[in-house]
Automatic annotation (TrEMBL):
<feature type="domain" description="Ribbon-helix-helix protein CopG">
    <location>
        <begin position="3"/>
        <end position="39"/>
    </location>
</feature>
<dbReference type="InterPro" id="IPR013321">
    <property type="entry name" value="Arc_rbn_hlx_hlx"/>
</dbReference>
<dbReference type="InterPro" id="IPR010985">
    <property type="entry name" value="Ribbon_hlx_hlx"/>
</dbReference>
<dbReference type="InterPro" id="IPR002145">
    <property type="entry name" value="CopG"/>
</dbReference>
<protein>
    <submittedName>
        <fullName>Ribbon-helix-helix protein, CopG family</fullName>
    </submittedName>
</protein>
<dbReference type="GO" id="GO:0006355">
    <property type="term" value="P:regulation of DNA-templated transcription"/>
</dbReference>
<dbReference type="Pfam" id="PF01402">
    <property type="entry name" value="RHH_1"/>
</dbReference>
Length: 89
């Protein structure tokens, strides 16, 4: 484990200390649990999104004329992914 510093506002720290006392745990444990939950949520969303995109690509490939270059379709889809990710930021 590595040590790190974070800045919390007074209310956040007060509530964390209160919860830590109720659960008889260090504040650091609660922070690590919160970070773990956040990371799991983000990764699950990313995996779900990636699976949805893969399924979409396959559906598009099945509908598109064979005269269209698959690499061109792939480039368009990748560009759409980049656009969505940029818009999320």
């Amino acid at each position: 484990m590595q040590r790190t510093n974070i800045y919390l506002d007074e209310d956040q720290l007060r509530l964390l200390k209160h919860l830590a006392a109720e659960e008889n745990k260090p504040v650091a444990d609660l922070v690590r649990q919160a970070v773990d939950q956040f990371l799991r949520s983000r990764l699950e969303n990313d995996v779900t999104w990636q699976n949805d995109m893969t399924a979409l690509i396959e559906r598009v490939r099945n509908r598109v004329s064979h005269a269209i270059d698959p690499d061109e379709i792939e480039r368009d889809v990748r560009q759409a992914k980049q656009d969505v990710r940029a818009a999320r930021r």
